[in-house]
Design brief:
- It is built from 13 helices and 14 strands.
- It is an alpha/beta fold.
- The strands form two sheets. A nine-stranded mixed β-sheet has the order 6-5-1-9-10-11-12-13-14, with helices on both faces. It has a five-stranded mixed β-sheet with strand order 3-8-7-2-4.
- Helix 7 packs parallel to helix 9 and helix 10 packs across helix 11.
- The longest helix is centred in the last third of the chain and has 16 residues.
Length: 342
């Protein structure tokens, strides 16, 4: 497919990452651990303003889907090749979030919530540790009605590939299904990510409602193991799980499901057209690794950047590995250089 405006559309939970270096005392003040990722409680809400007032912070347009979309946009290079949908607040953080995503070349189409503040994620760096505290707020408030507005739906009509991280199953599963059914009807590609073990456990009903429409399913080895257990696939072997995931019922019988499972330092497992293949990753030295958070999001962005250009699966995976290796060398999902993927 030729590279056109809005060819790749993402729906997710946009968060403004507020990143800074701090000392252990600051973590202690808010009851945070050095290498942890949690959802904010009431006691954390004031922390975000304190960070901005008292620390030198860096703002990054974050959230799993938006990370993947930004990485894909970075690699594609043609402005507005990608579009992001989600919910933000009508506040200063919402304005910064939009600016940061647009700086990356992404076409932003946020629903704006009148009451809730923009979702934020504190990224607190202490030595080589990274503590994440996400305050979902408005990101949790997306409504399908926003998609139904004619000028917004025009973006869905334009898109050829849709990507949704599993986290959005907790927000607007009806919006996900609307895109999934549109993809089926128009023979477009619908992609979803398992995203987290808890989604495979506690949101398995909306996940399995979407599964018949999923053309490309992403996940990692931990998520795959929990998925297998919850869906009674009867195996703990990652390769067998990938094969069984590919064989789950699918609406578009003309296009078998592709399953892509990343395994950290171990090979990427891909099942396509019923055949399994493994791809070795490029291992980095301990000195090169800055931050492994976001590597999975980057892999998806790299993969999809090639997929929308009709590249074969080998090239899609190769670019996914390139993008994840680039991001592992940065703090957070930051894209500071021009890509040199050959």
């Amino acid at each position: 497919m030729p590279l056109s405006e809005g060819i790749l559309m993402g729906l997710g939970n946009p968060l403004l990452d507020i990143s800074t270096t701090c000392d252990p005392a600051f973590l202690e003040k808010y009851g945070l651990k050095a290498n942890d990722a949690i959802l904010a409680e009431d006691k954390h809400v004031k922390m975000y303003d304190e960070l901005v007032e008292n620390f030198e912070v860096e703002y990054i347009a974050g959230g799993a889907t938006q990370n993947s979309i930004r990485v894909a946009q970075w690699l594609l290079g043609v402005p507005h090749s990608t579009t992001i949908f989600g919910c933000a607040g009508k506040d200063k953080f919402g304005k910064i979030l939009r600016e940061k995503a647009e700086e990356a070349g992404v076409k932003v189409n946020y629903m704006l919530d009148d009451e809730k503040p923009t979702g934020t994620c504190a990224v607190l760096l202490t030595d080589h540790n990274r503590s994440l505290c996400a305050y979902l707020a408005a990101a949790n408030c997306y409504k399908k009605d926003h998609l139904d507005i004619a000028e917004n739906w025009a973006y869905a009509e334009k898109a050829k590939v849709f990507y949704v991280a599993g986290f959005h199953l907790t927000v607007a599963p009806d919006a996900i299904l609307t895109l999934a059914k549109h993809a089926l009807e128009k023979n477009k590609t619908f992609c979803m990510n398992l995203s987290a073990p808890f989604l495979c456990q506690f949101f398995k009903e909306p996940m399995m409602d979407c599964m018949p429409y999923v053309d490309i399913l992403f996940g990692n080895e931990t998520e795959a193991a929990i998925f297998s257990k919850e869906q009674n696939l009867g195996t703990e072997d990652c390769k067998e799980i990938a094969m069984k995931m590919a064989e789950l019922p699918k609406e578009n019988k003309e296009r078998p499901r592709t399953v892509v499972i990343t395994q950290g330092c171990d090979p990427v497992i891909v099942v396509k057209d019923g055949k399994l293949k493994e791809y070795s990753i490029i291992k980095l030295s301990a000195e090169e690794i800055v931050d492994t958070n976001g590597a999975g999001d980057a892999f998806v962005g790299g993969f999809l950047a090639q997929f929308v250009q009709d590249k074969d699966i080998d090239e899609c995976v190769r670019c996914g590995i390139y993008a994840s290796n680039y991001i592992i060398k940065q703090s957070g999902v930051t894209l500071k250089d021009k890509p040199n993927f050959q």
